[in-house]
Structures are given as C-alpha cells and as structure tokens.
Amino acid sequence: MPLSDEARAVMARINKEHGPGSVIAASTMPIVPRFPSGSLSLDVMLGGGWPGNQWNEILGAESSGKTTVVHKTIAANQQRDPEFQTFWVAAEHYDNEWATALGVDVDRVAVYSTNAMEDAYTAMLRAAESRAFDAVVLDSYPALVADAEAEKEMDEATISAGARVTGKFFRKAGNATRRSLVEEERPLLALFINQWRDQIGAWSPAGVTPKTSPGGKAKNYAYYNRVEVSRTEWLDEKRPGGGSTRVGQVIKLKTIKSKSAAPQQVATIKFYFADSTTGILKGEYDMTAELVTMGILHGVIKLDGSWYKYGDYQWHGQPKMNAAIREDLDLQEQLSADVLAHVRPEAA
Fold this sequence. Notes:
Layout: H1 5-18, E1 34-35, H2 40-45, E2 50-51, E3 54-60, H3 66-80, E4 86-90, H4 96-101, E5 109-113, H5 117-130, E6 135-139, H6 147-150, H7 161-177, E7 189-195, E8 197-198, E9 211-212, H8 218-222, E10 225-238, E11 244-258, E12 266-272, E13 284-285, H9 287-297, E14 302-304, E15 307-310, E16 313-316, H10 318-327, H11 329-343
Helix pairs in contact: 5-7, 9-10, 9-11
C-alpha cells in the first residue's frame, strides 16, 4: 500500500521547511553503487563489494595483509574508473613503490602524511565533504596521536584520549559522507585500517587472550562493515635444482560486523608478493582460483561428472578449465559479473 495522503502532506511540510528531498519514499531511493575490492571472494563476502557512503574498518595483526587489501581495492576501482581519486592519510609511511606493484596509479592518490589525530580527522572530513575524492583511507589508526597525549609527558596517563576524539569524528562523519537522496552523486568509499591489541586483564575463556581494537567502542557502532584480516599459510614453490622459495601467502578475511550482508562470512585469497611459476605476477591475486571456487559455489559453473560447464563453454577436468579462464580476460569478467548478479541481483 503506498503512503497515505496524510503521510505525503507531512512529507511535503518537512521538505518545505528543510529543503527538497529531505524526506522521500524509500521505494524511490537510488541504489548506492558498491566498490569492487579486487577480489571476487571478498566482494561476495561483502554482499557485492564495499558499500558506498559508509565507513568500513579493516583490522588484523601486523603483516597480515591489511594495507595490501586496501591498495588492491584502490587499484581495482582505478581500473574501472579513470577518474577515480583517492585521499590517503598516511599515519605510517606510504610506500609508493609497493602501491605501484599492487596496481595503484599513484598519480591519482593524494597522500597526507601526519600522525596528529585531530589534523588527520579534519583533513578526512574535508576530503569527504568536498566531493573531489572518491575514496578516503586512513592507514592506520594505531599510529595516530591525539593532541591531549602529545602534550603530556611520557609518565602521564592519557588513557582514552584517542577514543574520545575518534568518537567525536564519527559523530561529524555522517554529514561528510551523506549524499543526496534525490540527485545522483558519486558515492564515497571510506576505509579505516586498524590493528588488534591484546586486552590485558579481560576475562579469557580457555586461556585465550582476548583481543580489542584501539579507538574505543563508539567507532564499532559507526562502522558499516568490520573485516578481520589474517594470514593462514605461506605459498611456497619448488625450484629447479632443489629447494623452494616463498612467493605468497593465503589471506583470510572474515566479517566481524556487516550491515549489508550476512555476518561471520569468510573469504580466502591467494596473494603473491613474488612472481609465480604458474604465471601469476608479483602483486596479484590468484583470480582464477577465486572465479572457479565462487562459480561452483553459486551454481554459475555446473558440474557434470568430470565436465565443467558455463554457458556455451565446457571443459573436461578442472586443469583445462583453469587454463582457459586464466587466458581469457573477457571470460573472467563475464564469470565475475554472473557470480555477483547471483549475490546481489537487484544491482545487476
């Protein structure tokens, strides 16, 4: 049943007082586009990609692949959109050589190098409000220092100073990321990188030290997605003449919180930080493995005995299918689109 005349009269009054488009029927709201992550498995886990106009947290232990995941996300969006611009707050060193190896066009990335928390947050809000940037990234929260802490001596307590400032930031961040409910505006991708800390003194079942993420609890309510990143294993390859060399790692991602898809979902990515004998180059994901796994999981690729079928394609045995997919970029794009359409049909 559509909204009643009385309801529409109230809506008209509000729009007159606060401006056109302040309140509209939910059915007329545009679908906010999602941002690809560069990994089909991660996109599926997120419900179709990173949600636009929302703040997302990526956290994990050191050297687990957090910054790599973000760089690959930026690279994927730059590849899709030649006008994609990124504002990157580097509270830690920004390695432009590594970013380039991961596929990022660093000419389209503005880097603000600071670990002053208030300055970083102010710059992020301005970048988001300006509509001049398509992505705002903080790398990373633990390196930021609040003014109240910077002004104290080493032996003076400053517990929760950063958490208070972060809570204030998220209370202001809503206006910065808000876009029109009527007019089409370019959405914003907002990513926070954070790191686990041991929660010393907290109750611990079975002797496992509980973890917490610095920044206080207020931020956890503000995030649309919280994604945990961890390394599960190394990828080693044998070399002629004996021995082996380490060429990559398996990155596991899990949604701790998701307001756009089912929580506690898991994605697995094979990431190569060196050239592989399989043809996968330094800085790349094994996209073929993800396409095959996701295609079979979602019924896009059909199994018939030892035959694999997809549309007009069919292959006898998985090695032949893998080789064909790896060599055909158009096939990769179509297969990825069909999997995502199965995950999020309303956006297809």
